[in-house]
Write a structure and sequence with these properties.
Layout lengths: L1 E3 L2 E2 L11 E7 L4 E24 L6 E25 L4 E26 L5 E27 L4 E8 L3 E15 L2 E12 L6 E10 L3 E10 L2 E9 L6 E8 L2 E10 L3
Antiparallel strand pairs: 1-2, 3-4, 4-5, 5-6, 6-7, 7-8, 7-9, 8-11, 9-10, 10-13, 11-12, 12-15, 13-14
Length: 260
């Protein structure tokens, strides 16, 4: 990511298995009921970076820049599921989930122009961006699995677009430059979390107690909406924080080998 000419920083990503909990009730030989809770998305990011660039602001001057970025974004899915063995080869399933999302995003950027030496600050500019919200939404999943042969399995699933139930949040944007200030603040905003529809297809080749190979294809449809909407506490004007998601297709490949 670049903050300006020669102002780059790198980050490392570490992915973990989502936390989950579930219980299953055997209603009959063909019907199963379950209740589960899991966290499919949990993003925690905290980064600070500073730059000192001598001479770029003029002879005998230097520019100092400080940048910080914090993200704490988590989703919790909780709800019941049903599985039905329609035949010896076909299995059907469905789930309904309440999705709880909590997100905090903070960004702080400051630049100062100073003499070299004795590093006396001449001008300074800063920008603060702070978003905090929580919300609840509802979605459903429908799926089917067909056993083509004793070793080959085919599957398909559909995730409905989520329906927003309720949510609230706040937004602060402040900008300070020499001889001018600008601020937008809105508390008690309405928050939304609209997950797009998703279509999934998969195939698996399994040899019991020997090996397994799997391939999944997921198509996430595009969506756009106002993640936050409200009124500016200072001017009384409308404030909107919009989100736009592009359509995405991702492919997952996996395998396992049984070690005796």
């Amino acid at each position: 990511s670049g903050l300006g000419p020669d102002h780059n920083y790198s980050v490392r990503e570490f992915e973990t298995i989502p936390s989950s909990f579930g219980s299953v009730l055997n209603v009959s030989d063909r019907l199963k009921l379950a209740f589960s809770a899991f966290i499919p998305d949990d993003i925690n990011y905290n980064h600070e970076e500073s730059f000192r660039t001598p001479g770029t602001a003029g002879a005998g001057l230097a520019a100092y820049e400080y940048f910080s970025y914090i993200v704490d974004d988590q989703q919790l899915w909780i709800g019941p599921s049903l599985g039905y063995l329609a035949s010896d080869r076909l299995t059907l399933g469905g789930s309904v989930f309440v999705v709880y999302r909590s997100a905090v995003l903070k960004q702080n950027w400051t630049i100062a122009q100073s003499t070299v030496p004795p590093d006396r600050v001449l001008d300074q500019a800063s920008r603060i961006y702070d978003v905090d919200f929580t919300n609840y939404s509802l979605l459903a999943l429908l799926g089917a699995q067909y056993r083509l042969t004793d070793r080959i399995l085919l599957g398909a699933a559909v995730q409905t677009p989520s329906v927003n139930l309720r949510g609230s949040g706040s937004l602060l944007y402040a900008e300070t430059v020499p001889d001018d200030d600008y601020i937008v603040h809105s508390a008690g905003m309405e928050s939304q979390n609209r997950l797009p529809a998703r279509f999934s297809f998969g195939a698996a080749l399994r040899e019991p107690k020997r090996y397994a190979l799997e391939c999944d294809l997921n198509w996430h449809l595009p969506t756009s909406y106002d993640e936050l909407s409200g009124t500016d506490d200072w001017s009384g004007g409308d404030v909107e924080y919009s989100l736009r998601r592009l359509g995405v297709v991702n492919v997952n490949l996996g395998g396992e080998y049984y070690v005796r």
